[in-house]
Write a structure and sequence with these properties.
By secondary structure, this protein is an all-alpha fold. It has three helices and no strands. It has one domain (3-103). 91% of the residues lie in helices and 0% in strands. Helix 1 (3-53) runs antiparallel to helix 2 (58-84). The radius of gyration is 22 Å and the shape is elongated.
Length: 104
């Protein structure tokens, strides 16, 4: 087998892998966009609710709304990474993250 045939087979395998992976990428982007919109809506609703419930301190309502926003976005990222088959990256990040935070 000469070099040209070898390179042609490599390019064909990349093409096939890309065509198989594209629908997963599209679905992951759709999931991220949906969770982004859901997080924004959740932040607005929780801000409205907690601003009325905690009238004495609006900062607490903002913090609660930000936490809800963060967790909804984070869950969207987790689901998108699982769709892409990259959930092992998250597992490794959670193993490494505490050691990085203790260095700071």
């Amino acid at each position: 087998m000469n070099t040209v045939d070898y390179l042609k087979k490599i390019v064909e395998s990349w093409e096939h892998a890309t065509l198989v992976f594209l629908p997963k990428i599209f679905l992951a982007i759709v999931v991220l966009l949906l969770f982004f919109m859901l997080a924004r809506m959740g932040r607005k609703i929780s801000m409205r609710f907690y601003s009325r419930a905690i009238k004495s301190n609006a900062d607490i309502a903002r913090i609660i709304a930000a936490v809800i926003y963060f967790f909804l976005l984070l869950s969207g990222v987790f689901i998108a990474l699982e769709i892409l088959g990259l959930e092992k990256v998250l597992f490794l990040a959670f193993l490494i993250l505490p050691s990085i935070l203790t260095l700071a």
